[in-house]
Amino acid sequence: MPRYASSTDVARLAGVSQSAVSRAYRPGASISEETRRKVFEAAEKLGYRPSLIPQIMREHRSYLVAVVVGGLYNPFYAQVLEEFARRLQAVGNQVLLVHVNSGYSLDEAIPKLASYRVDAIVSALAVLSVEAAAALARLRIPVVAFNSAVRNEWVSTVSCANREAGATIAEHFVARGARAFGFITGPLDSPASEDRLAGYRDRLRDGGYPAPQVATGDFHYEGAAGALRTLGAGGLPDAIFCANDLTAMGAIDALRARGARIPQDVMIAGFDGIAAAAWGAYDLTTFEQDAASMVRRAVEIVTATTAMQRPAGEIAISLPPRLVERGSTRREPATPSTAPEN
How many distinct structural domains can be found in the chain? Predict the structure, then answer.
């Protein structure tokens, strides 16, 4: 094992007391500039770095923020993780990455997070249950969750306006002549997927259009083919909204393998705005989430809550995604005569 230089080693080399070494690294502590200079010169020679443990004990903070993820296969969440690491470190925190399985549930990670004495938790994709939220509130650990339906005084949320996006894509499809609709979901316990479907279905109903056929997906490229078999059982829709871009890309490839033309036979739209959606092979219409703004707002909540060391309250921030129209839905707008009769 490596042996790290200690404050005792620095004190011996600098010819000062061990307490002087501690004071040299503490802002505002009483110490002469000459003594501080001796300490820093000795520390540089020895490769000494002060331990954070005394600061943690003194301030009752670990400066660790756990980022819980369960879906790094999706480039959107890889981008989110990188943004979190950059922004959290910029305000003096370190990131503890925790991966979860079991349907992306956060519940299984709570004992580990509590043992690390994290200052806060950011749930980037893991599903936050009511029970998990209550357990974290009892532990007094502030949580910021992406796209969560669960909130309490210790749990805040930052999300996209998922329902509004669902309504927007329904209007987009209708305006381009669609009359039969489909939706491929994410995992059944995904609040984001549920909200996107709800907005889509409600806007179609309000416009007098038939409810969309719904098939269960899993946010993966590979899951789209099986979901399409379910949708096709009742006649293939001419417009399909997918809960994320990976599913939409899988759907495009599966449909083309069956001889369908995109968008002439079936229009496809996704969600997330990943870079691959713009590739010529897909040219995918999608909703672009502003990852930088979502992360910035989440880090602002974490910073305020940990500084106060008390709950921030039930903060809920919703940011609008941007519809990016591309070739996968680029049909001529429908004429009024093609609208359904009520």
Answer: 3
Q: Quick one: 170 and 279 in the same domain? A: yes
Phi, psi of 69 (to 5 degrees): -130, 155
The boundaries of the domain holding residue 248 are: 162-288
Same domain, 186 and 274: yes
- Highest mean pLDDT range out of 54-63, 133-142, 145-154? 133-142
Q: Does 329 fall in a domain?
A: no
What's the pLDDT tens digit per position in 263-282? 999 999 999 999 999 999 99
